[in-house]
Write a structure and sequence with these properties.
Length: 68
């Protein structure tokens, strides 16, 4: 799917050379972050993970309600 977007966006001018360079530069960081995140999530018990995610969702819900 992403390849289809790239093939479409490039000829239309939506993907400039600087965007490509940024993507290439950020790729190693994204891969490392995914690897570390997976390792962290694998160590958290499932029940604690669910409570953590529910807490984060509730906190953001309150935050969005408080914002003007």
């Amino acid at each position: 799917m992403h390849v289809t977007k790239l093939v479409t966006y490039q000829p239309l001018g939506a993907m400039s050379g600087s965007i490509w360079l940024r993507g290439i530069a950020l790729a190693p960081v994204m891969i490392a972050g995914s690897y570390v995140g997976k390792r962290v999530v694998d160590r958290i018990p499932a029940a604690k993970f669910v409570r953590l995610i529910e807490g984060v969702i509730a906190a953001f819900g309150v935050w969005f309600l408080v914002l003007p």
